[in-house]
Design goal:
The protein is of the alpha+beta class. It has two domains: 213 residues, Multidrug efflux transporter AcrB transmembrane fold (Up-down Bundle); 75 residues, Alpha-Beta Plaits, CATH 3.30.70. The chain is 69% helix and 9% strand. The protein contains ten helices and four strands. The protein has a four-stranded antiparallel beta sheet. A hairpin with a 3-residue loop joins strand 2 and strand 3. The longest helix has 35 residues.
Length: 298
Amino acid sequence: MWVINNRKILYAFTTLLMVVSIGALAIWHLKPGIDFIGGTSIEISYSTDSVPTQAAILGAVTPVDANAVVRPSGTDGYFISMKAIDQDQKAVVTSALSFNGTASSTIKSFDSIGPVLGAESLRKAIVSIILVILAIVLYITFAFRKVSEPVKSWKYGLIAIASLVHDIIIPLGAFSILGHYLGYEVDTLFVTALLVILGFSIHNTIVVFDRVRENLSHASSNKPFSDVVGESVNQTLTRSINTSLTVLIALVALYIFGGESTQHFTLALIVGILAGTYSSVCFGSSLLVTFEKFTKRK
């Protein structure tokens, strides 16, 4: 019952998170990767006795692209993101990265994406997220169609939308801050992480809502709806926390020991699953009680 009894505190905390995230997005925006705006991605490694500094790599590619981004890859390599380049510029960059042959290096990948393809990827990413949210809401409305009192089935879907928006905004805000201060970019893997977060979050939300529906069918007519929701949260709390904790342990291990190419993807999942677990247990259930009380007052 703690969650329901202290829902005003939870609303204040949720509002703070949302304001910070939306504020970061409004001020700094997201830093799109080459998947969305087009450009060139290079992964290069060096022999252990001739690994140049990150500043040296940045200095080598700056004459071709002053806005190039260089990130470490393991202990002997780097990821480089820069504008789209032609074959002549590619030869110049390759020579510069080997420091005119003085550093033993291996180009692991050299990929270019045009701006048209990047814009198409961005459009498809936005459409996919919208379609997933719509499908989830329609499913919840259908699954809870027999629930009419004290909260109508379509309101369960509306609350699910609010929770999903929360679960999307928090990772977006986090990566806006990380992009501003640490140069983190968002790419198609980040969109994949958002879709995974949506699925994971709605799974936890449905578990809580379904227990509410089950308890309503057995509760006496004079039992307060807030008590039913509070008991439902308590009954599903351990399961929700344990499920999320096992996933987070695996993700943290992947973030620490996995490759550089999956670190941002893993970090987005960690932030999103934390936000999704919170919204499913605390935010969504509290909104159910608030909707019921608002309807009763009307």
